[in-house]
Amino acid sequence: MEELTVGTRVDHPRYGEGIVSKNNLTAYEIFFERGGKIEITKRNTDLKVIQKNEDVSAKTGLTIAEVEKVMSYVLDQYGALSEVVPLGEKWKGGTMLLQPANKELKPKEIPVEAFFHKIIMLRDRLRVLEQNINSHSVLTDEEKVNIQQYITRIYGSLTTFNILFSEKEHYFVGAKSK
To answer: Cα angle at 61 between 56 and 67, to 5 degrees?
Structure first.
């Protein structure tokens, strides 16, 4: 049997005429004249279509594209999606060398890409913190502003790392001096 949409009128030998009210994964929920609301599996061959619902606005499910759009929106709202931020071309494949003052100790070499990734993660987490502060139901507006000032100062402290970014739009920006 073809897929039935919500609003389709059907006939069943035992329950009589009914209207499809839900189209679930494996069954239809149908309201019948006799019997009321009954769930019937989609494999049931007793249903006969009386009148199809041609109204496309009565669809019961979401398309994959619609699900992706909703999920992207929700993940973005809660900071679970990270923005793709390109590393400056001159730093790709490079390393950072941390040389201790004590010459008896070994230097530490870190790939610039790994360090840059950590900086981006830090920025993403600061943004989530900002969102949580701004949407907090208990903090007063004054408390939110005071905490936000600290975050702005943190961004200011991170401006040193702007040299790693490929595009200025991704730079850290702290409080502007007057």
So the answer is: 120
Reported as a single tens digit per residue, the pLDDT across 36-47 is 889 999 888 888
Task: Answer yes or no: are the C-beta atoms of 79 and 131 closer than 8 Å.
Answer: yes
pLDDT band at 78 (very low <50, low <70, confident <90, very high): low
Region for 132 from its dihedrals, namely left if φ exceeds 0, alpha if ψ lies in -120 to 50, beta otherwise? alpha
CA torsion sign for 3, 8, 10, 16 is positive
Q: What is the reported pTM?
A: 0.52
Sheet holding 16-23, edge to edge: 36-41, 27-32, 16-23, 9-12, 48-51
Residue 145 CA neighbour count, 13 Å, CB half? 3
